[in-house]
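job 3f2a | input accepted
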Amino acid sequence: MVTPTVLPHVDAVEAALKAVPLTVYIGGTPTSTGWSPPDKFAVLYPDPGKASRASLAGERTDFRHLVQVTCVGATVERALWVADKVRQALDGPLTVAGRRAWQPEDQGGPPVQRDDDVTPPLFYVPVLYLIQSIPS
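job 3f2a | predicted structure (136 res):
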C-alpha cells in the first residue's frame, strides 16, 4: 500500500473547478509585471493534509486535508458567483487516481470582504473544503 500524498488531491480540486469553468490559481495570483486580474477567479490554498492509519496494521492509507478556495470578483456579486460555481464544482466526489474520494465537505467561510490593497479593489470570500479519500 502506498501512503497517500496531497498533490493528486489538489490536482483533483483544480480540475473540478476548471471544468465548470473557472480561472484557478494555486497559492496566490501571478506577481509578474503587467498581470491584471480577471473579473472573477478562484485561488486554492491547500494544507499538506494528514495520512492516517486505517487499521492497527500501521499502514497510513486514509487521507484528509483542507483546501481554502478564495473566491474573488470585481464586485460582491461576482465573488459570490465564483463561490456558487465552486460549490457546484465540488458537489460530487473528486477523481483521484488510485483513491476513492468522498464528496468535499463545505466548511463555510466568513462574509465577503473588500481588498483595497489592489487597484481597482477586488472582493473576496474564502471558503474551506474538507477533502477525504481512501484507497480504491
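job 3f2a | The domain at 7-135 is CATH 3.30.2000.30 (STM4215-like).
job 3f2a | closed
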